[in-house]
Fold these 3 entries.
Entry 1:
Amino acid sequence: MALDKYGIAKRIAQELQDGFYVNLGIGIPTLVANYIPEGISVMFQSENGMLGMGPYPHESAIDADLINAGKETVTVLPGGVFFDSAESFGMIRAGKVDLTVLGAMEVAENGDIANWKIPGKMVKGMGGAMDLVASAKNIIVAMQHTNPKGESKLLPKCSLPLTGVGCVKKIVSDLGVFDVKNGAFYLLERAPGVTVEEIQAKTAGKLIVEGDIPEMHL
Amino acid sequence: MALDKYGIAKRIAQELQDGFYVNLGIGIPTLVANYIPEGISVMFQSENGMLGMGPYPHESAIDADLINAGKETVTVLPGGVFFDSAESFGMIRAGKVDLTVLGAMEVAENGDIANWKIPGKMVKGMGGAMDLVASAKNIIVAMQHTNPKGESKLLPKCSLPLTGVGCVKKIVSDLGVFDVKNGAFYLLERAPGVTVEEIQAKTAGKLIVEGDIPEMHL
Amino acid sequence: MKKVYRNASEAIFDIQDDATLMLGGFGLCGIPENCISALIEKGVKNLTCISNNAGVDDFGIGLMLKTRQVKKMISSYVGENAEFERQLLSGELEVDLIPQGTLATRIAMAGMGIPAFFTPAGYGTEIAEGKEIRAFNDKMYLMELALHADFSLVKAWKGDTLGNLVFRKTTRNFSVPMAKAGNITIVEVEELVEPGQLDPDDIHVPGIYVHRIFKGIDYEKRIERKTVSL
Amino acid sequence: MKKVYRNASEAIFDIQDDATLMLGGFGLCGIPENCISALIEKGVKNLTCISNNAGVDDFGIGLMLKTRQVKKMISSYVGENAEFERQLLSGELEVDLIPQGTLATRIAMAGMGIPAFFTPAGYGTEIAEGKEIRAFNDKMYLMELALHADFSLVKAWKGDTLGNLVFRKTTRNFSVPMAKAGNITIVEVEELVEPGQLDPDDIHVPGIYVHRIFKGIDYEKRIERKTVSL
């Protein structure tokens, strides 16, 4: 059975390592914070100017001066720190953030990503996505494998305007986990009950299936 | 009579205006701080990372963590602020410092300045001088009119390696006050008792003397 | 040093039609509420507003959109408000979208006197069109220019009469680089104190960047997305 | 997150011969005294040291010159010590002199992921030789590159176990940009505290830049020019 958004987040959380500084995009990526593996400690960076982002506040602790990049009220954990937007993107560009998780409309087999603009629709802007994808050492895309029309979002080439080129290293979709390298999607794990054949059918880009593909453990 | 170094500093202090942010170089420029005209308030910037530099500390208040760009122990005045070297030169480059006063070995009639290197001698470095002269809105050079050999330091062209080009706006020497513009030194004031003829004789660069030149008031 | 003004109207006295403004804040967090009100009251028009976002329909820059005072927005993310979308689609409003980090850094560079720099953001995308591309250490970068404005309008938490500023939590955002970048920087603060009352080690924006400061009033601090833990 | 080391020797364990180091401080103010002692004890050689100054004969980097551990200095102002001058004139020591603001900014740019930028400092001088020159708004600028190092050695006043740093007075100087620029940043502090003990609004260097931290001992804090008012 394909994963729901919580399952995707849970699987991505397995990629976290102790001491990682992590930037989570809006949507599914945000959920990753709920599934940090036991025994490891990570720090979340919010690009509006915070390290050590904590959970949403209790009603009594809401503070209009403390929001995340999704403009949601949040908290700061002990050891957290605030800084300005220039400093925030400075640390992102300098590669100090170990892992960036974000959503995508399309990913190409060469690692290109499109997630900010659909021609003909009102464009709200790229926010920090172009900076993040151009700078992050390690980018995992969290997304549905197909769009609402059932078309593959893992493509030979992006059809939408690009956010960044050759930058996506890994994808966790509702159907599986994929390395993006050598101009192809390498299937690493299947979602529970999902067959290689289904994944193959729903992947328009070049898919590499080497040996026996295990089911993921959640 | 030619001015001594205190006289030069005193005359330069007359150029200060209320609200000015001022960077004073090592040597005579440092003395300017002792002659701030009454009724005005200026803030001194020290390029190692301070605004609001105060006088030297009393013996009991010496603090190794608080020095100026000349590496001397100093104090900070109420309203002062500390910052790092990158920020310090950022504000200098962005033209936020209203006036820079520094010494020179040579100034040319086109505003070029040389004050960091004598070929054949041990070179200690330019420190912040090149940044300051390239960025300051307003630069006054404080210097002796002639070198120890009696040769003019106001030249048609600098003979020493340059610190900056076309940047000096005004000179206060022991003999007079000069605007540097249109490729010439414009004599504005004479030191008390110094004649135009003496200044003329000791100025190798193009000197413009327009009308009656007043003696300076100290 | 006479930097203290009595209120927003007096502090923005010389902002005219066609001015380019930087407005601090991220979303509605840390926006210069008093200055925005005063701009609306003054009725200046054809403004170019540099701000990461464009407010919501009834708060922040959204209020200035309603009164048709904004000719152009320079932002990284907009469209949280219906009026914005309407004006954009009808062609009344121009929008220049810039990657958030590039926007923040172009502003910061203006405050550092650096006219141009290289960033990897947007390489290979439509953002790179017409820009100089160059490789450094085998990675591709675009040349971007410092971004200047006639006025920077910024809200800080505390400030002293010399213009030294302290911000609270995530309100630093674009406000700090904008405060340093303005040809004229106008700051509203919740608390205006005397020199010496702020610790010189804890100041986020040295007063040398700040031209005018006043104590703001009636802060609403609207929250855009209230999210809570149960 | 395991950033805390017991002392300088353990924190610099992997610094080898021929390494490029950034050493924080301005003059003798805020220098990493413990790290310098440990480097001397370890005896690593052929070091390239990026530091605004080179210490005095018997303190700071001067101590490493005495033991002939330094191959090259990258600085803005040097020669406050006789041994430095001797080695320079005899050709044992290389020196690369860089304008102070350019040096600070090249280091800061490394910490911001910006590979190159334009500055007016040195235009028309020998510093500009071989560099790309370009005009922006009718002013001339040089292109300068970010400056990187294998290790940054920095002394802060307080730090927490996550690497968040606070500096005191004018000790911020080159130490803050260097702390952000190091491939590996090693910090010694006078006081090492637990997360949460530093106010998140008052931190000068966020811990994300800091790889190792230890509590230093026996700070001498030598004063280079003691000047007093009577």
Entry 2:
Amino acid sequence: MEINILAFGIAKDIFGVSSISVEVSEQGNIATLKALLEERYPKLKQLASYMVAVNNEYAEDKLIITERDEVAIIPPVSGG
Amino acid sequence: MEINILAFGIAKDIFGVSSISVEVSEQGNIATLKALLEERYPKLKQLASYMVAVNNEYAEDKLIITERDEVAIIPPVSGG
Amino acid sequence: MQTQIEIHAEPLNIQQCIDWVMSPDSGGIDVFIGTVRNATKGKTVLKLEFEAYNKMAISEINKITKQAFKQWPVQKVLVHHRTGTLQVGEIPVIIAVSAAHRDAAFEACRYIIDTLKQTVPIWKKEFFEDGEVWVAAHP
Amino acid sequence: MQTQIEIHAEPLNIQQCIDWVMSPDSGGIDVFIGTVRNATKGKTVLKLEFEAYNKMAISEINKITKQAFKQWPVQKVLVHHRTGTLQVGEIPVIIAVSAAHRDAAFEACRYIIDTLKQTVPIWKKEFFEDGEVWVAAHP
């Protein structure tokens, strides 16, 4: 299935755009997605850390993704 | 010697005026003054506490008062 | 290291106070604003009256702000206290502290209001429907 | 128990924020104001850019303010965060908390800014004379 991924902050710079599409296997989870992204964008691995948000909530590695989810890459936050 | 004493807050209510004059013996100290005042105004003893300030500084009981000093009764403060 | 201390009967101006402590080398400002509450220990408060021994109060606040500069890396410290009659919702005190980092601003601001309430010769009278009382005067 | 949360690109208005948290049953207000500092680790900062994942940021701030209401007896809580380009001296964030007693206002305000900096999806890019960097992105 095709998953649309929003990118913010330095993740947007790494992707070069503010949203990308990746092909994830059915029953793919956050860990699957991270592995895919890190292969395509090795600079992600150089970040201090990063999280994935699904439907505006921080998601754990084992969460299964569906096509209807809003998925976003959350690099280290620095608001305030 | 004649000492002029400023009163604030409830001390002003107890004295009935914002400043009074009391006769203190030469070499009289803060303890002497407090004893005199408490005799004349027994309600001072009912306060939670009170301090005497001399020249805008909190004064200890043993401080000797002179005629040139600015003396004030400082009942429990409650600013802020 | 700059300090502004004022005690007067005019309404306090929040924006002016904050503008004064702001500076290009500060990263955070903590501001404490006291307001007249409509009740104390369940009793309706009608108004408050504040009285200050002005000269000594300024001198005592000055001691407190000096100590704050000693204890924390703060940049500008402002203390404004109002006297006279205040209605519910009005502002008796504003304390504003700027610092490069927020820790210092929060801690110094807290220290200043806490110590002000303990040592500065200012007195507050609460007016209720059935009488009035000097706060903290009696045990 | 009222909350006002806003994230937008317009300049933040201190007086409006404070007016909103004031109430006749509050006795104290603590306000934290973040300001853009002219230097970081000794390097001159020219400007900052803030970007937010708005929907999620609002939701995360909402979690923080709910927790503040659980932990402290506070009355009104306001969090405004600005996005876009900010010059030195401008204000990226205002947090204001009113409470009957100052302890709760100070502690909740401190908790909110500390937690906001850890969990809310907002990002800051610093612009120097010789380049730019996303704050905290790299180890």
Entry 3:
Amino acid sequence: MVNMAVNLGSLYLKNPVTVASGTYGFGLEYKDFYAPDKLGAIFTKGITLHKRIGNPPPRLWETPSGILNSIGLENPGVDVFIRDYLPQIKDLDTAIIPNISGSTVEEYCRVAEKLDGEEGIAALEINISCPNVKEGGMAFGSCPNTASKVVKEVRRVTGLPLIVKLSPNVTDIVSVAKAAEEEGADALSVINTLLGLAIDIRTQRPVLGNIMGGLSGPAVKPVAVRMVWQVSQAVKIPVVGMGGIAGWQDAVEFMLAGAAAVCIGTANFPNPMVALEVLEGIEKYCKINDIDDVGKLTGKAWKEMDR
Amino acid sequence: MVNMAVNLGSLYLKNPVTVASGTYGFGLEYKDFYAPDKLGAIFTKGITLHKRIGNPPPRLWETPSGILNSIGLENPGVDVFIRDYLPQIKDLDTAIIPNISGSTVEEYCRVAEKLDGEEGIAALEINISCPNVKEGGMAFGSCPNTASKVVKEVRRVTGLPLIVKLSPNVTDIVSVAKAAEEEGADALSVINTLLGLAIDIRTQRPVLGNIMGGLSGPAVKPVAVRMVWQVSQAVKIPVVGMGGIAGWQDAVEFMLAGAAAVCIGTANFPNPMVALEVLEGIEKYCKINDIDDVGKLTGKAWKEMDR
Amino acid sequence: MYKKMYIEEGKISYQYYLGNGQFLMEVFSPQVAGRALPGQFVHIACGPALSTDPLLRRPISIHRINKEQGSIEIYYLVVGKGTELLGMKSAGDNISIMGPLGRGFALEQKAKKAVLVGGGMGIAPLLALAQELAKEGKEVVSVLGAASGAGLARAGAFLAYGKLIEATEDGSRGLKGRVTDHLEASILGNDTLVYACGPLAMLRAVAEMTGKMGVPCQVSLEARMACGVGACLGCTCVSTAEGAYPKVCKDGPVFWTSEVSL
Amino acid sequence: MYKKMYIEEGKISYQYYLGNGQFLMEVFSPQVAGRALPGQFVHIACGPALSTDPLLRRPISIHRINKEQGSIEIYYLVVGKGTELLGMKSAGDNISIMGPLGRGFALEQKAKKAVLVGGGMGIAPLLALAQELAKEGKEVVSVLGAASGAGLARAGAFLAYGKLIEATEDGSRGLKGRVTDHLEASILGNDTLVYACGPLAMLRAVAEMTGKMGVPCQVSLEARMACGVGACLGCTCVSTAEGAYPKVCKDGPVFWTSEVSL
Ligand SMILES: Cc1cc2nc3c(=O)[nH]c(=O)nc-3n(C[C@H](O)[C@H](O)[C@H](O)COP(=O)(O)OP(=O)(O)OC[C@H]3O[C@@H](n4cnc5c(N)ncnc54)[C@H](O)[C@@H]3O)c2cc1C
Ligand SMILES: Cc1cc2nc3c(=O)[nH]c(=O)nc-3n(C[C@H](O)[C@H](O)[C@H](O)COP(=O)(O)OP(=O)(O)OC[C@H]3O[C@@H](n4cnc5c(N)ncnc54)[C@H](O)[C@@H]3O)c2cc1C
Ligand SMILES: Cc1cc2nc3c(=O)[nH]c(=O)nc-3n(C[C@H](O)[C@H](O)[C@H](O)COP(=O)(O)O)c2cc1C
Ligand SMILES: Cc1cc2nc3c(=O)[nH]c(=O)nc-3n(C[C@H](O)[C@H](O)[C@H](O)COP(=O)(O)O)c2cc1C
Ligand code: FES
Ligand code: FES
């Protein structure tokens, strides 16, 4: 038997396989394919204080082994989430983790406050790394100071475990990670999407309505694994690893690099069953390698390396 | 007839299709497949003051639509380059552009000085963005101040056109680009490789002997196109675009995004004929679109966009 | 929980090349076929499972539904990587299909007459619709157009369900001109409902014409898709209501012209 | 300029499955075959041309060379994406091959006797070598090993060129044990040259044994490759000389044991 449960600080996950914010709706879109409570956690689509209609189409473009998206945090706003969506998912036997965003620090706090009182919420993921909004988002995650500020203020208004989601579009992700840790983050999500752009050579214009978009999918995996490797060695809080996971081998790679749990995003689209396959694959890998606790994979590649 | 010649400042290229540093040796490795003087330019493997043996193996790993490399600037040193290699290529009817590196600003200058006097060199590419060496390399390209310093000092010792090669592993590539422009760069190469890492789940260790490596190939194209788009709008000097070009469509995309010339790297490996295919494809594209000068493609996507 | 979408390893029973880049493929996929409705689509993994390029599935309309046999037909044009790989498959090969997806055409409507307007590959979803409407006892008129005769390879199949008007831009088959040049006569009179699928320009023209004439009209739209199930919010079109972006995969692909701004 | 490498669209004349993931494929590729030497390899594009995953070609040894017919044979094992895609090809399909690449085995050596040591897929390049050496009039002894009998599917072909010793770790065919357990007798005596290809552990053992006995030995190495032509400097092994990293694709894949540190 392999113990598949992991703890991200005070947050208990029954297994380390979760689905990434923005790729799994509010948790029910894929229910025809499998019961969502098999997952360790569900990170919801980004939620803001007020409703956002998102960016104009087109919002998607396929690139080699990746996709560009410019959704722009379309969501009904935190109140509607609490009223209409949360009741449908709060009793699922999995950790529900709303992903929250704001144009100002104040907005992050208001959203966090509103969610704080609600039953069925396991933690909050603070998105300081969305590349698709004009204000806030990635701007907060691009430098340690602003990142500190968001985390510090949200930390004040809620006792929920806070998972801070970092942007890969920085020179030094470790400094942002440390800033978030210092201000009381319980865990870090590494990484959000890479800022990218594509041009349609027939129209001779950017393909996305919002011009730039976020790159995700297998293409970004080597960058994501590198950042998990760097961040997990520099901080003491656990890291949720993501970016291009498309099979259990990728998930194991992230855990060996230092992730305590993994998040599957883009790969849900071509293969809605991927999360279950990853879960099974990790467990089997542990068995074959005589590992009795999945947590022992975390950081194995650097913990045991001779330098 | 389409005019295919382009000028990068004072540097004349008979066409905008070039091959990237480190992927085409010293210009002769691929000669069995086509005459290298069909190219607009050849960027050589990185050259340093002293011979470098490079990093221990393994140095290569394939990733989804990309590769990680950790060559580590293996080269025979500038003197041997001048003595043994340059004579074999200096009479080719293409621009020979040595790519130079150093652990110190002084070293960059010494290499530039030595090359400055040599016949058959069209320009120098200053690599301040190599992720695979411990000292120098990317460290210089990660912040505007250090970038300035290298460019300024090299500018003093040579009259050759200087093309400064930027790192994508930064929060704000535009500020580094502007710094290089201010110190007298004649053109910018955008981009070098993204810092990445992969772990072998059987050995549970990083796959590369040097642990981290540089990610290149089609996977990185959306990031590269985005940076060309940003940089070309922010500076007045021309941009050489690269990162994932694998066909003429990609090359056109880079030019529309703002590149005055393109560089093909990784794609030479699976398809040694790719540069010629790109050259033909661009010319045909111009014809079909009634463009009489390939230079008119440069930045068309942003020049004509209504905002 | 009520199951309505499936992922199924479908077995290709045949794949015919129809010329000009067009293919007709039948896939044995009893679960998808069992629930499929006209106007819905399937999401197909076109490349080998172990490759991540192309990464996403490709949305393709259900061209014909054979519930007894447990199969669906698709009719598609090779335009890029995904469809090119699909075209390389042969009878006996398996392909992973997800579906049936989306909201199909409105059925059991009051109007006695249905005019189906298809342009180019927009013809694809209309055959299943024609069949269903004929079953409902409606009078079906299919007005199908293409650039040239080659694009009307599937038009003949519509004859089984009602009247057929063919139009080609080069006049090489049927009437010369666009479908919209030959539409007005068919939609005159009451009790008519128009269903259209084709290039955006055609849909705009049909929407304008039906709007002026007061004839209700449904259009089937396209957008780049990732998930196909409403999870990624990527495949937006533009609502006629202020500040809303309906999702083509879930709210559509079929919309009333009153719902979307084309 | 002297042309020695080619890129050729080769046509597969046959592809047989030999069990246990092994395939034998013949490709009609007259340019490559025309110049190929034993121990050289070809670089094969395994996936569809329009896909960028897998991105790189895969290096595969030339198993047999048929110059009259203009074809080469390759013998490979499915271990991942690339080889799996290669295994899906059929007779009549085209594949892009680059070659012949690298420095092959040393031929026309003084030694009268050649001992070929192959472990697992390391058997692949040795058949062309055995054939050539037999032509040169050498005495050829092939010592071929595998985990089990299934891995010796190609061993029989070596009989045509000399003596064959088979060994399997599980004893299911030939002698029980590793090739190195049964090698000493064959390489005793003067005038012998050893050629080895197989897993690194085997090569190390063979190198040690031949070193001790003073028998010259060549080994064929493997490394992850990108370009295959010496341009990327990626496929390094380690030289016995201080501070040098020879390139397996260009300086090798065949080296004298004195040249490389295994
Ligand atoms: C609901 C729906 C139903 C469809 N039904 C059919 C059908 O029955 N038969 C058929 O042939 N095609 C159909 N399509 C279009 C089909 O999905 C695209 O042609 C296909 O995805 C192209 O993939 P590719 O990899 O071959 O081309 P790509 O390499 O992805 O693109 C090549 C070209 O196709 C265009 N294209 C790609 N995807 C779309 C899209 N989703 N919408 C519009 N243009 C696109 C691109 O702009 C480009 O010009 C449908 C699309 C949708 C959304
Ligand atoms: C000069 C040379 C000649 C070769 N000749 C043959 C041959 O005749 N027959 C044959 O079956 N194989 C041969 N190989 C090995 C073959 O190239 C690899 O098995 C192949 O590249 C694997 O590709 P893949 O996509 O199937 O596997 P991947 O998905 O790339 O990798 C799967 C597994 O194969 C291993 N692997 C991949 N590439 C190599 C490599 N270059 N060297 C060692 N291990 C590797 C990986 O470590 C991994 O375990 C040769 C290699 C070289 C360098
Ligand atoms: C369509 C789409 C929408 C996304 N929306 C959000 C979001 O709302 N909030 C957020 O923090 N990340 C969002 N992301 C980023 C993912 O959660 C994830 O960090 C990223 O896609 C990398 O993982 P992947 O490669 O597995 O997709 C989105 C990604 C995609 C593809
Ligand atoms: C094997 C390899 C070696 C490289 N060596 C160098 C180098 O010596 N100097 C340099 O400036 N860039 C080097 N690069 C980076 C390329 O020149 C190019 O910037 C990068 O690979 C992106 O382009 P691509 O995706 O077309 O390969 C190297 C890239 C590869 C793949
Ligand atoms: S494709 Fe994801 S919401 Fe429609
Ligand atoms: S594979 Fe490029 S040098 Fe050998």
